[in-house]
């Protein structure tokens, strides 16, 4: 809670240096507002450095990032989700029909990622020059800024392909940032995360300083996990394996109850490597829609109302029947359906299923279409403590990196490096939690190609509605080799055209930044 409150207090810190006034000939006429700071007057104390990096975290909590837009952009293109939203900008994401002229949602994300980058650049420019009392704290602040900039760049390169990579505080009098290649972008992501690895602690419970005991800050494990993911996305499997092995040596473990990863219960648990911190108890009651931060902004998410079942929210995102059916393909050792199904979605379950304190079949008895439909359960406040999501204020943390992801990515590296038989062990660790049979017994001796398909299946069920599926589809080349297969599973792929695997560069960014010279193909 202290960390969230500090973020609220620090939001304005790195926004102020972007504001420039007109020229004044006589410097003696300049009067500084004691409530605001300049670049030179702010970065003075250890507290200033911590508040500065807190502001970089704050960009994770606004509408363009994890308050709402980023989960939508990551989820909707996969074959695990579908959208019947009346808002075209949202529904068209999954239909690969995003409009260049309407930057709603994807443009907000683009803007907010750069807000985070520019705030990180403030920290990385000024904190190294500060004479801080606590040298270890200084390293941790710089390490967090590298991690967060690497994370924002990761999203930009992964979702928008070829983008500018500014690495100094923005100067609006020279507003031209050169567009870089995607290869240069990935190289910068990897560089930032490597810097973070060297500077971050394993945790904040065994340190002293202003940030001692803070929960939710970036750790060495988070930096290694994202470093491994960046290598994996670039098919550097040996480097990815090494990074994941570092994470696996740090004491993370899967929580017994899979659903604990998607509710307010057991947040920041042993499986959590990095998550965005939301809370109904921090800040004000208004949501951070974007722009200049307000003193009444809270630290809550609009994801729950956006994804919520009919009558409990907007139902803009729903699971696909393909995801539902694939959960039925393999029973547990006790002959039961994979328990991740009930943790992932609501449906008319034989014997009944409760949502928001009511029985599913009773709620939808008057609507056959809804009674026979599927609705999202992950990240919903649906266990009875709230009647619905219409207050727009979910406090559920967004789990960006789970240990289960590291285990399955590690298994993928082993398979790609010719160690297919060794991959079974790490896949089974994820399967064991939900009591699925021993894969080495049920499907022994798989070839490398067969194991690739199996890993695809395992990831589909473990991470449904968590924003991983389309990234997997794209990096595995399935848009080229399995497009018809994808279309059979999810009709939204019928409107896919080459190039639309990435979002467009918002037209306003092209118009305003002469450094951007190329629009992404397909737009």
UniProtKB/TrEMBL annotation:
Predominant location: membrane
Top-level taxonomic group: Bacteria
Residues annotated as domain SusD-like N-terminal: 65-232
RagB/SusD domain location: 271-523
Pfam families: SusD-like_3, SusD_RagB
UniProt entry keywords in alphabetical sequence: Cell outer membrane, Membrane, Signal
Keyword Translocase on entry: no
Family matches, as InterPro entries: SusD-like_N, SusD_RagB_dom, TPR-like_helical_dom_sf
Subcellular locations according to the entry: Cell outer membrane
Gene3D superfamilies in alphabetical order: 1.25.40.390
Stated family: Belongs to the SusD family.
Record's protein name: Membrane protein
Species assigned in the record: Neptunitalea lumnitzerae
